[in-house]
Amino acid sequence: MRLKSLEILGFKSFANKTIFSFPANVTAIVGPNGSGKSNVVDAIRWVLGERDLKSLRVGRSDEIIFGGTPNRSRMSLAQVSITLDNAEGELPVDFKEIVVTRKINRDSEAEYLINQSNVRLKDVVELLAKAKVGSQGLTIMNQGSADAILKASPRERRSMIEESLGLREFQLKKEEAKRRLISTEENLEKTRALLEELRPHLRSLRRQVGRWERREEMVNNLQLLERLFFSAKFQEVYRIKNEADEKLHKFRESAGQEEKILTELEKEFERLEKQRPDFSQEFKNLRFQIEKLEQERNGISRELGQIEGKIEGMKRLSVPKAVSQPNFQELEKTLQTARELLEKVIVLDDLEEIRREIRELIEKINLVFKIERKNDDLGSEQNQLEAQRDSFFQKTKLLDERIKSFNQKLDELRQKDEQMGADTHDILIKIQKQRMSVSSLNQEMNDLLLSSERAKLRESDLLMKLKESNLAADEFIWEKIKNFEVAEELSKADFDGSLDDLEMKTLRLRHDLAAIGEVDEILVKEARETEERYDFLSRELEDLEKAEVNLTNIIEELTEKIDTEFVSRLKIINEEFNKYFRLMFGGGKAKLLLVQPIRKTKEEAEGEDKALVPAGVEGEVAATSEVKVDNPEVKKEVEPGIDFSIDLPKKKIKSLDLLSGGERSLVSISALFAIVGVMQPPFIVLDEVDAALDESNARKFAKILSELKSQTQFVIITHNRSTMEVSQILYGISMAEEGISKAISLKLEEAE
Known about the structure:
Elements: E1 2-9, E2 18-21, E3 26-30, H1 37-47, E4 77-85, E5 97-105, E6 111-114, E7 117-119, H2 121-129, E8 140-141, H3 148-151, H4 154-164, H5 168-275, H6 280-316, H7 328-346, H8 351-369, H9 375-420, H10 422-468, H11 478-481, H12 486-492, H13 499-516, H14 521-585, E9 589-599, H15 602-605, E10 622-627, E11 633-635, E12 641-647, H16 661-679, E13 683-687, H17 695-708, E14 713-717, H18 721-726, E15 729-737, E16 740-747, H19 748-751
Parallel strand pairs: 3-14, 3-15, 8-13, 13-14
Antiparallel strand pairs: 1-2, 1-4, 4-5, 5-6, 6-7, 9-10, 9-12, 10-11, 15-16
Helix pairs in contact: 5-10, 5-13, 5-14, 6-8, 6-9, 7-8, 14-16, 16-17
């Protein structure tokens, strides 16, 4: 890639549009002091992205714009453009020629354009960094700053070399990653702080809204369970009603037929009954006679029992030869017992029981009195009783015969009646059976009617409950729920229990919902918004943490790439640096040293010089190990970067601070040419870097320049004749008009 041209308008002393073409490899710009030669260098530096006003030799940004002369008014615009040849595609853009423009108005900020398209300064810097060109490296060396690389700190020296090595692109990415990492860390802290501030309030809202969220779930669950419950219940009620109606219809038909049969049987029975004779009065008379005889016989039986008791008592009595003195205490007890026994006998109807009780009483009396009676004293009375007993036996026998006779007549009459009513008996049995059948049918119909009425009452009750539950009755009509499978639907709802359990659960849910109360929509909305904000911040935190890790990895990868590339190139640069150093000084040796910090633990740092602790590092001591290609050495340095190691011929000078101005120029020129020779940047701008050289060293400078011009393009501001001699194009800068620079070009090859 080559620098094709430079166009300046309104920049510093270039009031008129001035175009510099650079078709050759070495272009020299000459002119008297104060003519504006260095303004050309400043224009190139400015269009390459320089923002440091001190480097542009102005105090304010508007001082870049032409400020006017006594004969010409000031301008409101400054614009500089450079044209780069990209025919070989070194820059990643689809243009063979790239024009970079920077312009500024007095009332606005600077604008940047690439091929007339507005871009950012960052875009310009990154694009040029890919071509190893930039305002901060060794691309441009200003007048009086030829030894800038010597005056710079180790870190600044490294940055200059990195830009020339083409590592500026990676450094920019690394710096951008660092800036983004810092921004990410700040955002992380802010996000964490917001989350910490939001978390207690969110917890409080979650607690308050939690029960309402559970309420919504409970409402949905209740609605589901109620639908299942009412569907099952209505299905059961409808099934009972339908079955009852179907059975009632069938039973009514059967009952009608059975009643018709019963009516016909009853008519037949009435007809037969009218033809049958009536024996009821004869039955009545016979039963009356039998009952009368039985009453008489019972009276005789009672008297007979009394007589037999007396006879039995007399048989057990014996007359003693001498009457003993009775035991009055025992007598009193016996009399008491006799009285109780007689009271008991009075109410007895069983003759045998009466006899038994009387015998026991007689035995007790005999035991008390201990008397024996003479047989002749008892004989007369006993004979009378026995004669009376025999008489009663005879009467009883006669009565039994008469009763038997009447019973025989009654049986005969009954047989006669049965023979006469045999036909009606069969009909009567059929009537009884038919009545039982009709009664059974009527009972079943009554049961079905009762069941139907109960189902209707249950239906009314379910309809009222539907209304209480805000459910529409149309959803539970028979056509919609007749195919409802209770067990299957309950299984789908993950409910394991009976319908009674289901009803109890719905009641509990209603009670719990009533206890929870209505939802505060404002609070719910606040909770939802707070939850969304918390989730958003949580996602942001997660993304930021990932970004932090990614950026840290990118920085580490870029650092490793830069360090690896830089160290590998530094060896080649040192070889060239030593070659040019020996050429310039006629001997000696020189090299660039890579210094890197070595971190020590707090224990290792104890006793070290605290002045070596860099700012912002706590508990660590930064030292540097001098990493050299040939001989590693160790020296102490606060910051990493590049240092010089020189050994002048015939002198024992090791420090740059002890060098003269000319010697410093030779060292910096040697380093510059070493870097240019190794990295071959597209172009280099030098502003009187050879001003401090004597004639002999100027020729050496020109010789090296002629060797390098085949690989790098040079634009040189110079007063040195030797430098002019190796130049192919010469521009002269003058001020034909006071305060306004003008350029005149000359191709030296054509002039010769």
